[in-house]
Write a structure and sequence with these properties.
By secondary structure, the chain is an alpha/beta fold. It has helices spanning 3-15, 105-112, 139-154, 173-183, 227-236, 253-256, 262-278, 287-291, and strands spanning 48-57, 62-64, 67-70, 73-82, 88-94, 117-121, 161-171, 192-198, 214-219, 241-246, 297-302. The strands form two sheets. The protein has a nine-stranded mixed beta sheet, with helices on both faces. A two-stranded antiparallel ribbon has the order 2-3.
């Protein structure tokens, strides 16, 4: 008998029953628990080094009141880099009007110690150290500066920067610029995965819906930007928004340092970026609880 015939006979005899009963089969469900990887731990108190980079955008001039003040945009940038193997997410920090990166050195260094490369450029018409007449009517140009800095910094060799994880943080006028880079029509940078805006003005336009999360911060006793401004921004931005009101806090002191609200602002910023950009800490499901835990804050959010 051929091999084919033997196999056929075996199949027929094994697949039929002389009693007419249906064949029986058994199955087992694998109930072994699925091992879900634990989230990476949050990083804090890393040692930080500070360097300066002479970045220049040769494609755009500095102009004010219709006059060209320089034929290219020099953007000297201070970079705080944490120690460790990396790579670390990139945060571009945008300073306020009449200030410069040095005025925010404490905050930027603190944020870098939580595992972020923080790059703070000096904007030619906002930083009095630059020698140009101050002019806050060019925030759209500064949004372009931020995108230029992201490109310049993330392309550097050394492996310290994870260029797939980018955020923008800004204070006062810098918060206005951060909102433009995150949500503005014609200025939003698709590389930006999260925005922190501390004491912003309302946006001049209603932004398009976005998936980019926003941490909105302002002191309720802000003497420079009306507290109602951040309430307006909360309503304007059509994206996940976490709104932190610092009860009784003024405009600059919390971020400059030495106030009861300073550690709250520092940890809230780091926790937000951990959850939304870095993929560290307890995760975004626990973020609201983290942000609302201090008695010095009032918290609201929306999806």
């Amino acid at each position: 008998m051929s091999l084919l015939a033997v196999l056929s006979a075996a199949v027929l005899s094994g697949g039929c029953s002389t009693t007419g009963s249906a064949p029986t089969s058994t199955s087992r469900v694998d109930r072994t628990p699925v091992q879900v990887p634990a989230p990476a731990p949050a990083l804090r108190q890393l040692a930080v080094t500070m360097t300066q980079q002479a970045l220049v955008d040769t494609t755009r001039p500095v102009t004010s009141d219709g006059r060209e003040l320089a034929d290219q945009r020099a953007l000297p940038t201070v970079v705080w880099t944490p120690t460790g193997p990396g790579p670390f997410p990139l945060v571009v920090f945008v300073h306020g009007f009449g200030k410069g990166p040095s005025d925010y050195q404490r905050f930027c260094s603190q944020l870098a110690s939580s595992g972020y490369v923080v790059a703070a450029p000096s904007f030619p018409l906002e930083d009095p150290a630059r020698g140009f007449p101050l002019d806050r009517s060019h925030l759209t140009e500064e949004a372009g500066d931020v995108s230029f800095v992201i490109t310049a910094i993330e392309g550097e060799p050394g492996g310290h920067i994870d260029d797939t994880r980018v955020a923008v943080v800004g204070h006062s006028d810098g918060a206005d610029v951060a909102l433009l880079v995150g949500y503005g029509t014609g200025t939003a940078d698709p590389r930006v995965g999260a925005v922190v805006a501390d004491a912003p003005d309302p946006m001049g336009e209603t932004p398009a819906p976005s998936h980019v999360p926003l941490l909105l911060i302002q002191g309720t006793a802000d003497s420079v930007v009306p507290y109602s401004s951040s309430q307006t921004v909360f309503e304007q931005v059509d994206a996940p928004v976490f709104y932190l009101s610092l009860l009784g806090a003024d405009h600059l002191p919390p971020i400059a340092g030495g106030t009861p609200w300073t550690p709250v602002l520092d940890e809230s910023t780091a926790a937000f970026l951990d959850a939304t950009v870095a993929g560290r800490g307890p995760g975004d499901t626990a973020l609201a609880g983290e942000l609302s835990s201090s008695p010095l804050v009032r918290f609201a959010s929306k999806e």
